Amino acid sequence: MPEHRAKRIGVLVMSYGTPESMADVEAYYTHIRRGSAPAPEQLAELKERYEAIVGGVFPLRENTNGQVAGLQDKLEQLIAGRFVCYQGLKHAKPYIEDGVEQMAKDGIKQAVGIVLAPHYSAMSVGSYIKRAQEKAAELGIEMTFVQQYHLHPKLLKALTDRVVDGLKQLAAATEGEERVKVLFSAHSLPVRIRELGDPYEEQLLETSAAVAKAAKVQEWQFTWQSAGRTREPWLGPDILETLQVLAEEGVKAVLVAPVGFVSDHLEVLYDLDIEARAAAKELDMTLERIAMLNRDPLYMETLAESVIEASVCVRKE
After folding, report:
1. Beta pairing, strands 180-187 & 220-225
2. Which residue has better confidence, 14 or 59?
3. The domain 3-149+296-311 is classified under which CATH number: 3.40.630.30, 3.40.50.620, 3.40.50.1400, 3.40.50.1950?
4. Which parts of the chain are beta strand (E)?
5. Residue from 13, 17, 15 nearest 111 by CA
6. Residue-level pLDDT at 131
7. Which CATH code is given to the segment(s) 153-289?
């Protein structure tokens, strides 16, 4: 391998992962359940959800692939020839460990890890970092990580623009309904994170408050979504409960801003666009959602600048 290639810094871009096809859903679900196969009814329900949003065709993986490619392009624009991106998924191939192994095969000795999730939790981002760090140590790669970027100015600008646009769409759809509520949301986690002093909830509220202020939103609140189905309690209230309360308060128009997510996937396209929208309709409410970040240039710049800043911490050869 040429010497200049060996000195390049690897960038492990990590995310939750999605199946590549309907045939992969069972293996994906089994991996999420730590090797325990789902019951037939559980598998059928998940497949029905995917069928509802993709119709048997899987564009969801393309969103992540596009973000990784977009980050690579932006890094090349900022510092040509210095960084090379790899993908590592939590619950699908290429797994996090696969991405680290590929870096090692390519002669990468130093790397930065970043998760496609702006807010840190030991249960989410922390678990990605742990897996990557263990594999990197095993293979002799020096690795540092971006732990959060929830208040990066360009991320906030991208989200603010989307809230402003969403409010315009909502006004058009409701013919100028005056009372509008903005609901910022994110994936729920078990309540026990509060006992651990986990920053996840606080960081989400910081992002929401910053975006609401920049977008000049008067009425907003935070709500949760997509809680896991386990015996332990999860953070709430869930968005479906929140919609019920708002309906009782006379709110007729809602804009959902899922700031905890960065691309179109199941929790957005089904949990919000289908399930929450149907609930709102039953309550005689109009519900709109902001566009997701996906490959938004400002989000790509957020990621690239965060990676470059973190790379300063990597020991220079």
Report:
1. parallel
2. 14
3. 3.40.50.1400
4. 9-15, 83-89, 110-115, 142-146, 180-187, 220-225, 253-257, 286-289
5. 13
6. 98
7. 3.40.50.1400
